Amino acid sequence: MKRENILIPKPRSNFVSIQCEKCGAKTVVFSHTTRNISCSGCGEPLATSSGSKALITGKVLGVLDQ
Ligand SMILES: [Zn+2]
């Protein structure tokens, strides 16, 4: 079986770790989520869908590479 180098386009999307500024709970969300993400602890909105990329309203702790 021949192995070929196939170029896989690197996805620009990733996961970001967000901390709720209200209660401090951490949530990992998809950076291009099409859903509105709320804090699991207090229900505070953490990310809002705004077209292509989600608008992060919480405190971004870091980006998680896949
Ligand atoms: Zn919260």
Q: What does the secondary structure layout of this molecule look like, with pairings?
A:
Layout: E1 15-19, E2 26-30, E3 37-38, E4 45-50, E5 53-56, E6 59-64
Antiparallel strand pairs: 1-2, 1-6, 3-4, 4-5
Bound molecules: zinc ion.
Task: Describe this protein's structure.
It is a single chain. The chain has 66 residues and is mainly β. It has a single domain, classed as N-terminal domain of TfIIb (Single Sheet), CATH 2.20.25.100. It has strands at 15-19, 26-30, 37-38, 45-50, 53-56, 59-64. The chain has a three-stranded antiparallel sheet, with no helix packed on it. A three-stranded antiparallel sheet has the order 3-4-5, with no helix packed on it. The radius of gyration is 15 Å and the shape is elongated. Zinc ion is lined by residues 20, 22-23, 25, 39, 41-42, 44.
Q: Output the number of helix runs.
A: 0
Could you tell me the number of beta strands?
6
Uncertain runs = none
Order of helices and strands: EEEEEE
User: Can you tell me the CATH topology?
Assistant: N-terminal domain of TfIIb
Top CATH class: Mainly Beta
Give the biggest beta sheet: 3 strands, antiparallel
Structural classification: mainly beta
**Rg for CA atoms:** 15 Å
The named CATH superfamily: Ribosomal protein S27
What shape does the CA trace take? Answer: elongated
Major β-sheet strand ordering: 2-1-6
What fraction, in percent, of the residue positions are helical? Answer: under 10%
Write the CATH architecture name: Single Sheet
Content of β-strand: 35-45%
